[in-house]
From TrEMBL:
Transmembrane recorded as keyword: yes
Organism lineage string: Bacteria, Bacillati, Actinomycetota, Actinomycetes, Micromonosporales
Domain Histidine kinase: 286-503
Transmembrane stretches, start-end: 20-44
Reactions the enzyme catalyzes: ATP + protein L-histidine = ADP + protein N-phospho-L-histidine
Protein's UniProt name: Sensor histidine kinase MtrB
Keywords: ATP-binding, Cell membrane, Kinase, Membrane, Nucleotide-binding, Phosphoprotein, Transferase, Transmembrane, Transmembrane helix, Two-component regulatory system
This enzyme's EC code(s): 2.7.13.3
Species this chain originates from: Micromonospora profundi
Residue ranges of domain HAMP in the record: 219-271
Membrane topology, from the record: Multi-pass membrane protein
Pfam families, A to Z: HAMP (PF00672), HATPase_c (PF02518), HisKA (PF00512)
């Protein structure tokens, strides 16, 4: 039961958040209900007050007249024990009640003598026990010489009825007696109930009409907005020929016309940019291909000169070595440009197969061992003792690792570079940790940009092209994986490559932490919650804050 109520509440909340029409109609109904309800209450209360005041005025006149008549009738008697006094009181009560002791109008007249309860008996017309309806407070007020009233509910001649009870003192030669009128308020209650029902019914009808009017007006406004939203979604999906229908000349028609004009301008601009991008990609590809032929010729000549450099003067021999090195870099740059053009054109293909990543890491380390030894950067490995199998493209993974390790060696500052390999049920991860100068805050947004360098004045040790990390990021995306960076000034940097263990799976977590365990906050070391993490899953900062122990991906990446 609670689950059903929770789901219903969730659907209602979702509808409330998503539907402007529902919110407007609901607010209109609530506001109009409060206003109409308050107005109905005031009207009904006013009608009841008027009816009661009229009844009080009428009964007050009857009481005053009855008290004068009763005073004249008993003025002849000087003592309460006179024999004819009780008979006179009986006749007076009957007369004031209308002359018929059995009258059925509902009005009850009573004469009592609080000062002479044993000598003068209480008389009523028609006969009824009125004592329960005459309260002690009313009796004391009348006995003190005041005309007083109250409203009481009781049973006299039938069903329980609400009575307006009026009491008045009647002066005599021997003292005072009391005259009471008990007038039923049945007619006033019925009239007030009818008035309340009429006001409530009118109010409900008014609220319903206001709700319908709000729904109609909101629909007239919301429908074009919904059409605009759907059209915008189609435009964002690439259907650039979608337009809104323009009806009339009002503000909504102006909105539709303006939206269509905006869509036309966007379509024209997007097509122009696509054409420019296509021409740029084609230019890059064509230039890269065209440079292959002269590069091959220059390479053959440079190889010949390089092979004979020992017979040249030292200056010429050194020039031959520089020429050979720059040709190697130039050839690598052309290869990277061709690869980037394939990514940009969407022609890059993944050739995934079950691969043991441990030998891949060893091949990368062996290839870069000479460079690491030359710059004095030791490479340390933290690899599992068993094979780490994943469905990946080994050529692309090896290229990513070669770029990451080469970048770490270049910025290692003669300190060790640690390569760690981890695996869990759904993913494999490789981290490359260096202890160099690190990355400044904000540079994580730029590290995967093409041709970006943290220090432009710094000479490259590896002869890189500036495209390595950009290509590595595209290779990771092609696998459906993540390539992330962390860095802090003076603490080095760490890159983490996370790939799904099975091709096509969706990643949710990584087996390895992005922030190394030895990293410290810039305000005095580690704190509760772990070190500061600055993650760049797609070339930008994703989150800044303490890293949880499980190092799960942020919500932005999971979505």
């Amino acid at each position: 039961m609670s689950g059903r109520i929770g789901r219903l509440a969730g659907r209602v909340h979702q509808t409330w958040r998503r539907s402007l029409q529902v919110r407007v109609v609901t607010i209109t109904l609530v506001a109009s209900s409060l206003l109409v309800g308050g107005f109905a209450y005031l009207i009904a209360d006013k009608i009841t007050t008027i009816l009661l005041d009229n009844a009080r005025t009428d009964v007050r006149q009857r009481v005053n007249s009855g008290a004068s008549y009763a005073a004249r009738q008993v003025s002849l008697y000087g003592q309460p024990q006179e024999a004819q006094l009780q008979e006179t009181i009986d006749n007076t009560v009957n007369y004031l009640a209308g002359g018929d002791p059995q009258q059925t109008s509902g009005v009850v007249v009573a004469i009592t003598a609080a000062d002479y309860p044993t000598m003068i008996q209480t008389r009523t017309a028609p006969a009824a026990n009125v004592q329960p309806l005459i309260s002690k407070e009313l009796r004391e007020a009348v006995a003190s010489g005041q005309v007083a009233s109250q409203i009481r509910t009781g049973r006299l001649t039938g069903e329980p009825t609400k009575y307006l009870v009026y009491g008045s003192p009647v002066p005599t030669r021997f003292g005072q007696i009391e005259l009471y009128y008990l007038v039923p308020l049945t007619r006033q209650d019925t009239t007030a109930a009818d008035a309340r029902a009429t006001v409530v019914g009118t109010g409900i009808a008014l609220v319903v009409l206001l709700g319908l009017l709000a729904a109609l007006v909101t629909r007239l406004v919301v429908n074009p907005v919904r059409v605009a939203a759907r059209t915008a979604q189609r435009l964002s999906a690439g259907l650039l020929d979608q337009r809104m229908v323009v009806n009339g000349e009002d503000d909504l028609a102006l909105l539709a016309a303006s939206f269509n004009q905006m869509a036309t301008n966007l379509q024209r601009q997007i097509l122009r940019l696509e054409e420019m991008s296509r021409l740029q990609r084609r230019f890059t590809s064509d230039v890269s291909h065209e440079l292959r032929t002269p590069l091959t010729t220059v390479r053959m000549a440079a190889d010949l000169i390089f092979a004979e450099r020992d017979e040249f003067d030292p200056a010429v021999a050194r020039s031959a070595e520089l020429l050979q090195a720059e040709l190697d870099r130039f050839e690598e740059l052309l290869t990277d440009l061709l690869e980037i053009s394939r990514f940009d054109a969407g022609f890059a293909m993944l050739d995934a197969e079950p691969t043991d990543l441990v030998p891949v890491v060893h091949r990368v380390v062996d290839r870069l061992a000479g460079l690491a030894e030359r710059v004095g950067v030791p490479i340390e490995l933290d690899l599992p003792g068993t094979p780490v199998i994943a469905e990946v493209d080994p050529r692309r993974v090896e290229r990513v690792l070669r770029n990451l390790v080469g970048n770490a060696v270049e910025h290692g500052e003669a300190r060790p570079v640690l390569i760690t390999l981890g695996i869990d049920d759904t993913a494999v991860a490789i981290t490359v940790r260096d202890h160099g100068v690190g990355l400044k805050l904000g540079e994580e947004k730029l590290v995967f940009n093409r041709f970006w360098r943290a220090d432009p004045s710094r000479a490259r040790q590896t002869g890189g092209t500036g495209l390595g990390l950009s290509i590595s990021l595209e290779d990771a995306r092609l696998h459906g994986g993540w390539l992330e960076a962390w860095g802090a000034p003076g603490q080095g940097a760490q890159f983490r490559l996370t790939l799904p263990a099975r091709a096509g799976d969706r990643l949710t977590t990584s087996p390895l932490r992005l922030v190394p365990a030895d990293a410290a906050l810039p305000f005095g070391g580690p704190r509760d919650g772990g070190p500061l993490a600055i993650e760049a899953g797609t070339g930008g900062v994703l989150t800044v804050g303490p890293v949880p122990a499980g190092d799960e991906r942020p919500a932005e990446v999971r979505s």
